[in-house]
């Protein structure tokens, strides 16, 4: 792109097309510390991506504490299963993958 729009102008154009536009705030040192202390941020090890931070659980229940069972799937790992769930036949799924219409690993 040869030029860039200012944030307010880009927001105005996007809003004209019906897009919801919000400003994304970044976190600074003490904010991260508080989120970590509250358990809002979890440190996990993803099998492919390695160590990373992710959102923690929104509720803490004493009798049934939440726990992370597995990491997020890799991009395309669940493509076949999702398409099957939506009723796509195996031949159509294979055609979509062959045509690079969908990503599958």
Write the layout of secondary structure elements.
Layout: H1 7-16, H2 29-38, E1 41-46, E2 50-55, H3 79-85, H4 90-98
Antiparallel strand pairs: 1-2
What does this 3D model show about the protein?
- The chain is an alpha+beta fold.
- The chain has helices at residues 7-16, 29-38, 79-85, 90-98, and strands at 41-46, 50-55.
- Strand 1 and strand 2 form a beta hairpin.
- The mean pLDDT is 85.
- The longest helix is centred in the first third of the chain and has 10 residues, at 7-16.
- Among the domains are: 28-58, no CATH class; 73-105, no CATH class.
- The protein starts with 6 loop residues before the first helix and ends in a 7-residue tail after the last helix.
- Strands 1-2 form a two-stranded antiparallel ribbon.
Q: Main traits of this protein?
A:
4 helices, two-stranded antiparallel sheet, 11% strand, single chain, 105 residues
Q: Into which percentage range does the β-strand content fall?
A: 5-15%
Question: Structural class given helices, strands, pairing?
Answer: alpha+beta
Terminal residue distance: 32 Å
Spatial ordering of strands, largest sheet: 1-2
Oligomer: single chain
Number of strands: 2
The largest sheet, given as strand count, sense and whether it forms a barrel, is: 2 strands, antiparallel
- Averaged pLDDT: 85
- Shape, please? flat
Radius of gyration computed on alpha carbons: 21 Å
Helix content: 25-40%
Residue runs with pLDDT of under 50 for 5 or more positions: none
Number of alpha- plus pi-helical segments: 4
- Secondary-structure element series: HHEEHH
């Amino acid at each position: 792109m040869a030029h860039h729009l200012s944030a307010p102008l880009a927001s105005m154009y996007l809003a004209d097309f019906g897009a919801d536009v919000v400003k994304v705030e970044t976190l600074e040192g003490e904010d991260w510390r508080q989120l970590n202390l509250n358990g809002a941020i979890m440190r996990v090890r993803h099998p492919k991506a390695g160590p990373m931070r992710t959102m923690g659980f929104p509720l803490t229940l004493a009798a049934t504490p939440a726990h992370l069972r597995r990491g997020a799937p890799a991009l395309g790992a669940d493509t076949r299963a999702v398409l099957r769930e939506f009723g796509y036949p195996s031949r159509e799924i294979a055609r979509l993958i062959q045509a690079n219409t969908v990503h599958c690993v």
